[in-house]
Each structure stands twice: as C-alpha cells, then as structure tokens.
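Hi C.,

You asked whether I'd gotten around to modeling the 316-residue construct. I have! Everything is below, sequence then structure, no commentary in between.
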Amino acid sequence: MSTLTEAVVTAGRSRRTPGRGPRRAGQRSPYPGGLAWILPALALVVGMIYFSIGYTGYVSTLDWNGFILSPSEPVGGDNYAAMFADPIFWRAIGHTAIFFVVTFTAQTVIGFVFAAIMHSRIHLAPVYKVIIFVPTVLAPATMAPVFRLIFDANGSFNGILSAIGLGSLTQPWLAGNVTAMVVVMLVTIWQWTGLTFILFYAAMSQIEPEILEAARVDGSGNIRTLWSIVWPMCRGTAVALAVLGVIGALKTFDVPYLVTRAGPNHATEFLGTYIFQTMVQEKHFGYAAAISVALLVLAIGAGLLMNRINRQSERS
C-alpha cells in the first residue's frame, strides 16, 4: 500500500465516531426518534386542517351569522335538511358534473393532440409549447375582465361575428343561461389545456422509440399508432388528469364568479360560489358550513372512486 493510500485510510479511521458504528444491546441511539422530526408538520396539519374541518362540522350544526359576539343557536341537522331540499344546491352539483365532463373531455383531446404534434418534426416547436402553456400561469383575476369585454353584448366577439356576415348569431353571451355556462367552460379549457398538454407530452416522452418504429414497420398509420399504442401508454396520465379535473370542478370558484358572478339566475352557480354567497353575502355561516362539509364528502368520494378506476386500469 502506498504512503498516500495509508494516510487516507488512517484519516478516515480517525474521523469515525463511536456513534456511527453498530449499536450494542441496550445502548441508546445518539439520534432522536422519528417523531421529533415530524412533530412540527403534524402539529401544523392537525391544527390548521383537521381542526378546521372539525370546527366547520360544528358550525354546520348552528344558526349563526358569523360574528363572534353574536349569539348562535344549535339547530342540529336542520342545515343539512335544508341543503338537501335546496334546489340551488342540486343545481350547483349538476353544473359541476356537466362542467367536469365537458372541460375534461375537451382538455384531454386538445392536450393529447397538441402533445402528439409537438413530438413530430415541426419548426419552432419550443415557441408553440410556450404559447400553449402560457394561459396556465396567468391569474384568472387578470384575465376575467378581458373575457367579460370579449363576450359582452357590445364586445369584440359579437363584432367579429358581424364582420364576417354572421350578425344573426350575435347575442349577450353572459346574459343567457346556456351561453354563460359555455363561456365559463371555454375560459377554463383555454386556461388548463396547457397543463394537460405538458403532462401528455411528458408521458409520450417515456415511450420507447423502438415500439413506434415497430408499429410503422407493421404498416400502422399515424392515427392507428396514436389510438392503439400511444393512448394506452398514456392512460395513467389521463386518469391522473381526471382526478385533478374532478377536484378542480368541485372547487371551481374564480372563473364563474369573476366572469359571470355565478349568474344569470344561478345559471353558472357552483358549490364554491354558492358557499361564498351564503357565507359572505347572506351571513348564513351554519348553512354555508353544511355545504362545505358536503363538498368535502364529495371530493373524498370522487378521489376514492378515481383511485379505484386507476387501479383497475393498471391491472388491465
């Protein structure tokens, strides 16, 4: 052994501490247990999340206007009974279901197609990727006034229709029950398709090129390759996007509130906007808390259902 090697080995041995070696029976570890490391996070989670959930459940059994000094009257399950008999509540759930189906389908199809195009030989692909993804990072509060101006009765969208000879189709888009919901869904699709595109693009990047080459050798065309090979390999990403889509639909608030104010006549009412209206504007904190508990139950149930579907798709 050379002198340099002996010096390195000697220095390494001299730096060893007794605590680093194997412990003997009955010898205490010099390092604290794992509980000490997770206590801060555990206290934060329990204190701010689970306590808030429990307090919301407690408030849902009260008739209270939200002011600390105001008296509150226990009403038991009356808020839940009123919620199940409330047509606006069920209308909001129906809007959430329709919203999820339309937006998820559109985002999945557009994002998948864009990802497939970006994986082909196309000029200025990095520029197109940025253009597609930019809406995802824009705050809805900054874009809502723009969309209100675009779809206003005297907005630019009606102006374009009139300019191309389709003036008969012009209408106040934000004032119609159906068209207002269509506008909300279009804004959401425009905003979140970039995220869908990025995830599908990453999933396609994991596909072995040899598989695609073998498909081309067997005479498979582009459409058949995408449908029979690429899409099945991206199915896990689609399920993950479905989970995010369900949770996002249940939590939808910013776009319908900022663009349509949940109107007209509750045409774009969602659970989030209804909770805000009931709690902040009408000061019915107990009833709003009951709707919040229902929203939590729906989110947990949807998450469990999507997780089960994901496991079944992985097994198949």
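If it helps when you're writing up: The chain has one domain: 78-315.

Thanks,
B.
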